Model the fold of this input.
Amino acid sequence: MNSAITTQAASADDVAERGQLDSVWKNNPGLVAWFSATTHQAIGKRYIVTAFVFLLLGGLEALLMRLQLASPENTFLGPSRYNQIFTMHGTTMMFLFAVPVMEGMGIYLVPLLLGTRNVAFPRLNAFGYWMYLAGGLFLYGAALTNTLPDAGWFAYPPLSGPEFSAGKGVDVWAQMITFTEISAMCVAVELVVTILRMRAPGMSLNRMPMFCWSMLVQSFMIIFAMPAVMITSTVLLLNDRTIGTHFVNPAEGGDPLMYQHLFWFFGHPEVYIIFLPALGMVSSILEAHSRRGVFGYPALVLSLVGNGFIAFGLWVHHMFATGLPQIGEAYFTAASMMIAITSGIQIFCWLAMLWTGRLQLTAALHFVFGFIFIFVMGGMTGVMLASIPLDLQAHDTYFVVAHFHYVLIGGALFPLFGGFHYWFPKFTGRLIGERLGKISFWILFIGFNATFFPMHAVGLQGMTRRIYTYGADMGWGTANLLSTIGAFVIAIGGLVFIVNVLRSLRQGTVADANPWDAGTLEWAADSPPASYNFTHLPVITGRYPLWTAKDSRGIVTGLRPDRREVLITSLMDAEPHHRSTLPGSSIWPLLTAAGLAIGLVGSVAAFSWYFVMTALGIIGFIGWFWPRPPLDVK
Amino acid sequence: MKRGVLLLLPVGVAFAQQSALDPAGPYAHRIELLGAFFLGLLGLIFLVVIILALLSLTRRHRGIDQEPLEQNHRPSESTERRLTRTVGIAAAVTVLILLGLVVISVSAGKATSTPGNPDPANALVIEITGTQWWWQVRYPNEDASRIVVDANELHIPVGRPVLIRGTSNDVIHSFWVPNLQGKRDLIPSHVTTDWMQADHAGRFRGQCAEFCGLQHAHMALWVIAEPPDKFETWRAHQLQPASAPADPVRQRGQQVFLDGACALCHAIQGTAAAGQVGPDLTHFGRRSTIAAGTLPNNKGNLAGWIADPQNIKPGTRMATVPVKAEEMQPLLEYLEGLQ
Done:
């Protein structure tokens, strides 16, 4: 054990140490330095802001669709444009918004919650962000050249195959997946290692904050789920399209159902990848806002882990209509319903917290209440969809559209907004406006329900998904008009949220380190945190270090302040193990990502670009891993 | 029961042409019943959860402006024990409810995927082939001369189970007639099956439910359920080739059809037209719609469809065949006369 741990409070005379830490950790000014940043706060913020831009784009696409469907036989968008827009909407929301924004929150918050200085692999972290950005720019760059995918965000062959989707749109879609998957894998790996080996001394696994648990489970899910979609989109689909492999081409003996199995083996866990972090946020918000410790910690953790496992066992409920054998279908019905047990237990635990807490009804807590309302309703329709006969009626209708928007917007977006309000002072150093926050909540909540509730009904009345128009005699007009109006109400709610954020950034009340009097470690750091998070890494004796008496809080001493040193602790009990020096800023993650991106983008035009990618990638990695002088020499 | 379900759905209860909430056969009926049960039970649970959540606001709630609150508080041991017990019971009840739901769901699944009639040999078999963007319908028969081929319309006898055997010529489609049964995907290189039955005579609309490209929105079909004797009459008529046109106008129309590009894609039994790409038109005049439910079948619509199919159904595989103005009327007369 290299570092001594004292249980005494830090001496007030830290100024020199802070100065040293600052000079080692801070991101230097200047453009090159900006592109070289590897601190988790910088990368996390970039993920969140970029993802939010994609949320706006995806939302804009939703509004276009709603305009088209507002009235029967509308000619605002033609079939080709409509198909492109719903494909872009789904792809953007799933791959470019929902997963990255959760990863961004994780990257920013996890090291703070764990009481460490950065994620385990800072350069990989930066590289992951640049790959994500490149993938997003690639897809929307293709939009500028009118090369848009139009086979849906799921791109089922044979429709997405070379015979029925000519042009480069689907190739762009498939290769964009590669970018985002690489990015997701980077984040998952580094968060797993960070969470398992970089917790503050004393933070045994059973003292870890719920949000970190949710990110841990989510990261493992990414590691197991994402390879499946890379196989479907790149190996099966893209190779079928570019070099004629016929993996999923029925005309040449390939099987389109194999694609569906693999796609949903990823696609169903993807839903949980999106909303597990949100569940962690709900726990965090509730702890601080009910001013009591989380209720049922072991039950909540086991439910999260259970969700993570079960999520891999129910992909077939997306394929009930393909007519698989009965006995298998019964299994998948049972598995799909089982997820309601683990989700239900979490809801019960939160209700118990609300019931015995001293609630502060802030904007963040409003979003948690909104979450409970919307998510529970989405969960109920989810149980209905797990039943095969009901699913066969509801599948691919607007009932399902309603269901998964309830689950994803209610289960992920509302907690995310709640979390954003809650952690805003930590991100920015200023409190977010409570009044506008509550107003935006109510507008979003009402708009959401006005948009999506009618879809339940219109779906059961026969309105299928992904149709660009419908006849006036179908009887779907009123419900669709209501949905369109609701969609614009949501847009207004979003605008109020943006106004609130911009106003609070300039005029918000300056926040101290812990404006909510919350108990977890991120609130021990400055608001916004210094580039090194903590002057002294904390030592933990309970789940809520900031709710324990001040004089019983310990700190880690013995870490060198003159380099980027962090403490590695043991997996289960977080006992100090050794010191480790993290790499500093580097431009190479960006250059490597750019090199790979050039190759991947080119590969859509010709297979030979993969060689370019390999060559540029090798150059990038050589630069990245070029031996440097011993770390002691500064 | 039906009214009950509708009451729970506050909007759009206006007449819908195709609806899972208006079952017309035993399969759809069983599913609707199951759905109503799920909806009632789950709706109740939802209400309980929401009421509990909202009631928590009234409990010892102190507003944010009543600071300072103590930093945190720890509920008493007995409170926590009570909570643990309550949550445990709630979880156990959840498990039991879900177990029950699995059982009734699986049994309903079995009932809706097997023929209700004990003698499946009694079943009528219909083969459906999904094609961008229309439905080929075929009534197979061991006797090749008794095979009926039709498009975008299924005639079925009331009260008799129908076995749908489906596949696709191109991309994945999904066969769905909500008033009669849940949907079944039509997948190239696979054959999928589904049972269907109508309890009373009527016309039931169906629509492709799996996204299949540009004109996914315009891929509808009609199921016409008739008393068995009427169905047999219909089938006997379908077996007849098209009758030769008697009047000169229709004769001219037939000539236009056979000499032009039409016959390259469409077949009319009893003539030289034997194209297999588009729908069989032998009894076209008896169909209620044009272009897979896109337009009502009448001369005006047919003229528009032939003159510019891309305008009516952008992306359709139907070729734009130049028809001279003076040839259009005879062609329309001929086609609409194909009874």
Q: What stands out?
A: The domain at 248-336 of chain B is CATH 2.60.40.420 (Immunoglobulin-like). The mean pLDDT of chain B is 90. Chain B is about 35% helix and 15% strand. Chain B touches chain A through 97 residues (CB under 8 Å).
